[in-house]
């Protein structure tokens, strides 16, 4: 039997969630609707007509949930703040009752020795800001900066790790391009404008946080870069890969890490927009020094030129829609990558995570990396004794954590890993159909039951070592 793989003693072992997916309490303590509250009430948008109205009621059960994290041995917890809970219209002063929830949550985490990591924006834009135009409008970036300062001032004395945006690609291209996410718009020009203004929000928000917080605090962003592969080395397939790389990756890491968009992005999308929404000084505002980079990874993406590609709705891992999320890329085809698949239909491929880490180690030399999301959905069910065994998830985690450890051996400065997700929860347009949690939630009673993967992951967190393949944990 091979020796366990050990991680650095300072490595953070965490789990991640987001506000709309777990909190519930959507009408309590001054919270007003977000774009997801509205989207969920639009017929046909969310599977089963599900909503996050109750979700898993974390708003009222957070103390028990933190105790569960501590019992599992987690050393870090990444959660998001609900913008409409803190600043209901997206403008003006904070609602202290909303901030107080996050103050209590942070205090509870610290009391249990768990390091909090705050994500400011995980997709729940206040509906009033969407009514005023949403992310395609420049004003939304300025509103985000004000919101960032409010939260930073309230929590910055106790929270050291901060993330401005989670997966801005999804906000821009699923929200405004394909329409499979809130607010459900299908306008490629708006999607590109949204991407730029999310970049601007990140830069302005980073500056706002630093203006109100201790200098020791870390500011990062969580991107979900596509780990792209071309079907062949044919020039047209490599060009398809390049174009999607611009739209998936360069559009965000270009300005954030390097202060410039890829030049070919402008020519590739000239038929959609003239990019006149990029104003003088924007790239400087966006290009703020970062203290860390968050990477979210689930599965690689395989592309080619569209010759002989099947027609009909596109299934490219982001939901099925008659509208593509990819502006000016109708002649690019997306293919199912080979291998075992999760309940989302996503291929299990840890090599993609290793490649992604190494790419960004080269893209941003010296910048510490955190894996801020990684995990899998499986059809988990309790056995007759009420235990939930999920060996597929244990195998998934083992493979991906092995990939992280290999990247560290190869010179990457990876500081921590956040499992997605702590608990089963509201999975956006899939409603409650897909279970990503290490903890099983009975949606009828909201009872929490750690799955065998939660115990396995807890053992890894406590020991800082990855057991040899096949060694599992009990429920």
CATH superfamily: Glycosidases
CA-CA gap between termini: 24 Å
Judging by the overall fold, what is the CATH architecture? Alpha-Beta Barrel
Task: Please report which band the strand proportion falls in: under 5%, 5-15%, 15-25%, 25-35%, 35-45% or over 45%.
Answer: 15-25%
Any idea of the CATH topology? Answer: TIM Barrel
- Which percent bin holds the helix content? 25-40%
Give the overall silhouette: globular
Q: How many domains is the backbone divided into?
A: 1
Main CATH class: Alpha Beta
Class computed from helices, strands and strand pairing? alpha/beta
Number of strands: 17
The number of helices is 15
Uncertain segments:
311-315
Q: What can you tell me about this protein's structure?
A:
GO terms for molecular function: beta-glucosidase activity. InterPro entries: GH, GH_1_N_CS, Glyco_hydro_1, Glyco_hydro_1_AS, Glyco_hydro_1_beta-glucosidase. Belongs to the glycosyl hydrolase 1 family. With 475 residues, this protein is an alpha/beta fold. The protein has one domain: Glycosidases (TIM Barrel, Alpha-Beta Barrel), CATH 3.20.20. The protein is globular, with a radius of gyration of 21 Å.
């Amino acid at each position: 039997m091979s020796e366990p793989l050990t991680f650095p003693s300072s490595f953070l072992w965490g789990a991640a969630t987001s506000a709309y997916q777990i909190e519930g309490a959507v009408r309590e303590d001054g919270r007003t609707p977000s774009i997801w509250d509205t989207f969920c009430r639009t017929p046909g948008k969310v599977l089963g007509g599900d909503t996050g109205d109750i979700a898993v009621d974390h708003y009222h059960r957070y103390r028990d949930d933190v105790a569960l994290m501590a019992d599992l041995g987690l050393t870090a917890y990444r959660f998001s703040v609900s913008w409409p809970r803190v600043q209901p219209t997206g403008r003006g002063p904070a609602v202290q009752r909303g901030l107080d929830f996050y103050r209590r949550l942070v205090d509870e985490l610290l009391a249990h020795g768990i390091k909090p990591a705050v994500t400011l924006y995980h997709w729940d834009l206040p509906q009033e800001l969407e009514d005023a135009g949403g992310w395609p409008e420049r004003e939304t970036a300025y509103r985000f900066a004000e919101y960032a300062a409010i939260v930073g001032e309230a929590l910055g004395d106790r929270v050291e790790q901060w993330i401005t945006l989670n997966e801005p690609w999804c906000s821009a291209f699923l929200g405004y391009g394909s329409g499979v996410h809130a607010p459900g718009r299908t306008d490629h020009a708006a999607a590109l404008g949204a991407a730029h203004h999310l970049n601007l929000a990140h830069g302005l928000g980073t500056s706002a946080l630093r203006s109100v917080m201790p200098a020791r605090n870390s500011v990062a962003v969580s991107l979900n870069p596509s780990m792209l592969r071309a079907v062949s080395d044919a020039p047209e397939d490599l060009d398809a890969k390049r174009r999607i790389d611009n739209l998936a990756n360069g559009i965000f890491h270009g300005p954030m890490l390097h202060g410039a968009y890829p030049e070919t992005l402008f020519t590739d999308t000239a038929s959609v927009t003239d990019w006149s929404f990029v104003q003088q000084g924007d790239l400087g505002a966006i290009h703020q020094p970062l203290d860390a980079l968050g990477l979210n990874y689930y599965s690689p993406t395989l592309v080619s030129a569209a010759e002989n590609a099947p027609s009909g709705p596109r299934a490219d891992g982001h939901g099925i829609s008659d509208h593509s999320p990819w502006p000016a890329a109708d002649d690019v085809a997306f293919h199912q990558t080979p291998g075992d698949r999760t309940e989302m239909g996503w291929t299990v491929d840890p090599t993609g995570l290793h490649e992604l880490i190494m790419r960004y180690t080269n893209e941003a030399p010296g910048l510490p990396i955190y894996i801020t999301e990684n995990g899998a959905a499986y059809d988990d069910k309790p056995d007759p004794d009420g235990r939930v065994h999920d060996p597929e998830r244990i195998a998934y985690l083992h493979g991906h954590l092995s990939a992280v450890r290999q990247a560290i051996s190869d010179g990457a400065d990876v500081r921590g890993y956040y499992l997605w997700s702590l608990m089963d929860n509201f999975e956006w347009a899939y409603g409650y159909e897909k279970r990503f949690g290490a903890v099983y939630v009975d949606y009828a009673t909201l009872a929490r039951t750690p799955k065998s993967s939660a115990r396995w992951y807890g053992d890894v967190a406590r020991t800082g070592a990855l057991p040899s393949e096949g060694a599992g944990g009990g429920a």
